[in-house]
């Protein structure tokens, strides 16, 4: 008979060999490796997305500043 533990993440019992004690706000809880890995990889993707997004934001800000500068140069004496 295989030992199982209740996974607080999936809310089902898994084989205990697939489980690790995971630190939570309530203390250590059993959680399966699959959910830990899924959370870790989704966090990496989020971080990568955030970095990409802030790079895009920086580029957009630079382009907007450049465009504003060009517009001022095109209309130097506009009221
Ligand atoms: Zn699980």
Spell out the blueprint of helices and strands:
Elements: E1 4-7, E2 12-15, E3 19-24, E4 27-32, H1 33-74
Antiparallel strand pairs: 1-2, 3-4
The chain binds zinc ion (ZN).
Each distinct ligand: zinc ion
CA radius of gyration is 25 Å
* Helix content, binned percent: 40-55%
- Determine the mean pLDDT: 92
- Characterize the biggest β-sheet: 2 strands, antiparallel
**Could you tell me how far the N terminus lies from the C terminus, measured between alpha carbons in angstroms?**
85 Å
The SSE order reads EEEEH
How many strand segments? 4
Assembly type of the chains comes to single chain
What strand order characterises the main sheet? 1-2
Computed structural class: alpha+beta
General description of the model:
The structure is a single chain. With 79 residues, the chain is α+β, with helices and mostly antiparallel strands. It has one domain. It has 1 helix and 4 strands, in the order E-E-E-E-H. A two-stranded antiparallel sheet has the order 1-2. Strand 3 and strand 4 form a beta hairpin. The radius of gyration is 25 Å and the shape is rod-shaped. The termini are far apart. The mean pLDDT is 92. The chain binds zinc ion. The site of zinc ion has 6 residues, from loops. The site of zinc ion (ZN) has 6 residues, from loops.
Which short descriptors sum up this protein?
two-stranded antiparallel sheet; 4 strands; 79 residues; alpha+beta; binds zinc ion
